[in-house]
Amino acid sequence: MNIIYYHPLFNAQEWLAGIKQRLPQAEIREWQRGDERPADYALVWRPPHEMLANRRDLKAVFALGAGVDAILDQERKHPGTLPAGVPLLRLEDTGMAQQMQEYALSYVLRYFRRFDEYQALQQRQEWQPLDPHSLDDFTIGILGAGVLGQSVARKLTEFGFSVRCWSRSAKQIDGVQSFAGEAQRAAFLDGVKLVINLLPNTPETVGILNRELFAQLSTGAYLINIARGAHLVEADLLTALDQGQLAAATLDVFAREPLPQDHPFWRHPRVTITPHIAAITLPQQAMDQIVANIRALEAGHAPAGVVDRQRGY
């Protein structure tokens, strides 16, 4: 069994050693330009076109992340980047769900308890108790009801929040109100005080966080974007904040990363920035899942996390 690996940022030696420890019979190597030797499996993140394009012997391509928008975008721009008929698999959870829970909960509570406003008051040296939000008027809406969206929704219900989800197809989540499709999006948004974006990045969802969506939320609503920067129309967010339609926004992802130094988000008093760290790939858990899927494929069983290329997730 031959495995090739490519990631422009990860420590390659950690991954090569980890996979080899789990699959002693495998030959695994870091792919280099010009390497056309046989490969059964490819572990990749933003692979160069020539790495995969002509490989008809691959049994599967593993994306080293929960999102596969980057590699699918490469395929759209350079058809053939992904060999036809070869399944593409993404990571499912591998420790990301808990990280997303922690991130979302921390900022939900920050806004619910108005700690962001108290921080601003402290900077002005003002002692001023604020009227608290109540659970009755703090409905949370989650865009996206995949593994991560469902995990965040369940965690928030444990704190007594009224939570609703919106997704392409209907989902059943205990204690969470489910909405699906374009026909139900307006009903989903109506009355939402805080919206969390966890949608996959597809051509249909690009720019979904825009002025029309913001206008349908409760006045003074909050936004937490922990999906992709492409979902957000940045100018519309700045307008919504300046006009008071939105009270504040927490952004972990951006159209350009790192965020340029001259970007207005850096200076806006109601925007909180984190550097794409809401949920990172945990190598040990990721390798466990990848190896389990390789073993399933070798045994003729269905693997987990197969991507529908048309849907984009």
UniProtKB/TrEMBL annotation:
Pfam families: 2-Hacid_dh_C
Keywords: Cytoplasm, NAD, NADP, Oxidoreductase
GO cellular component terms, semicolon-separated: cytoplasm
SUPFAM superfamilies assigned: NAD(P)-binding Rossmann-fold domains
Keyword hit for Lyase: no
InterPro entries: D-isomer_DH_NAD-bd (IPR006140), GhrA_Enterobacterales (IPR023514), NAD(P)-bd_dom_sf (IPR036291)
Broad class of the protein's primary localization: cytoplasm
Active site as annotated: 228, 276
Enzyme class (EC, first level): oxidoreductase
Catalytic reaction equation(s): glycolate + NADP(+) = glyoxylate + NADPH + H(+); (R)-glycerate + NAD(+) = 3-hydroxypyruvate + NADH + H(+); (R)-glycerate + NADP(+) = 3-hydroxypyruvate + NADPH + H(+)
A GO term for molecular function: glyoxylate reductase (NADPH) activity
Record-annotated D-isomer specific 2-hydroxyacid dehydrogenase NAD-binding domain positions: 106-278
CDD domains in alphabetical order: GDH_like_2 (cd12164)
EC number assigned by the record: 1.1.1.79, 1.1.1.81
Localization: Cytoplasm
Family: Belongs to the D-isomer specific 2-hydroxyacid dehydrogenase family. GhrA subfamily.
Biological role stated in the UniProt entry: Catalyzes the NADPH-dependent reduction of glyoxylate and hydroxypyruvate into glycolate and glycerate, respectively.
Name of protein: Glyoxylate/hydroxypyruvate reductase A
